[in-house]
Amino acid sequence: MELSLKNVTSYDKNKYTKISLEKRINILYGQNGAGKSTISNFFYNPADDDYRDCRCTNINNYRPLVYNTKFIEDNFFDKD
């Protein structure tokens, strides 16, 4: 699977940044502002309009599991 990010948060607006995610388990780490949350948010909700210029090959062959801030907010906090 290859993730191609463009025109979203810290990623270039004019060209794709390509990230290979071929391993069965992928762990993302890096400095603040490096784009870790952008990647996890894409997999959490790829249909979000923020990701209209982003692509992921073979995503239907995988089931990404995302545990990020958005997941916690959606599943562990009252909506009231």
Q: How would you explain this protein's 3D organization?
A:
The chain has helices spanning 36-44, 69-76, and strands spanning 2-5, 17-20, 55-56. Helices cover 21% and strands 12% of the residues. The radius of gyration is 13 Å and the shape is globular. By secondary structure, the protein is of the alpha+beta class. The protein has one domain (2-76). Residues 9-78 form the Protein CR006 P-loop domain. Pfam families: AAA_13 (PF13166). This is Protein CR006 P-loop domain-containing protein. InterPro entries: CR006_AAA, P-loop_NTPase.
Question: What class would the helix/strand composition place it in?
Answer: alpha+beta
H/E element sequence = EEHEH
- Shape field: globular
User: Low-confidence parts lasting 5 or more residues at pLDDT below 50?
Assistant: none
Rg result: 13 Å
The count of domains is 1
Helix content: 10-25%
Task: Summarize the model shown.
This protein is α+β, with helices and mostly antiparallel strands. The protein contains 2 helices and 3 strands; from the N terminus they run E-E-H-E-H.
Note the main attributes of this structure.
2 helices; 80 residues
Write the layout of secondary structure elements.
Blueprint: E1 2-5, E2 17-20, H1 36-44, E3 55-56, H2 69-76
Antiparallel strand pairs: 1-2, 1-3
